[in-house]
């Protein structure tokens, strides 16, 4: 999956947790991107079976999308905690950096970090 697709899935999951429903405009605001960019990305995610649109035109994660989004968001939270622990920097800065790293990092590295965080 392309990197920004993961960003969108993560944003949809977080909006769903915060608001209970997700509209395109909320996704655009959350990621600070244009509505046409959101439309394009949603088209691709829908085609790949990660999301679907409800009758009220809100965005819903499919089971496949939910699993993928939870995986990305799990990495996001883990890396944020890890970076805070080792750097002592603000949550905001660590979260921002985590969000950049989370797409590129290997699974075994994530697992190693998880183990470290549990022990420290
Ligand atoms: Zn993230």
UniProtKB/TrEMBL annotation:
Transmembrane segments: none annotated. It comes from the Bacteria. The keyword Manganese does not apply. PROSITE patterns: HTH_DTXR (PS50944). Residues 1-62 form the HTH dtxR-type domain. One of its GO terms (molecular function) is DNA binding. Pfam families: Fe_dep_repr_C (PF02742), Fe_dep_repress (PF01325). Keywords: DNA-binding, Transcription, Transcription regulation. Signal peptide: none annotated. The keyword Transcription regulation applies. Belongs to the DtxR/MntR family. In the presence of manganese, represses expression of mntH and mntS. Up-regulates expression of mntP. PANTHER family: IRON (METAL) DEPENDENT REPRESSOR, DTXR FAMILY (PTHR33238), IRON-DEPENDENT TRANSCRIPTIONAL REGULATOR (PTHR33238:SF7). This is Transcriptional regulator MntR.
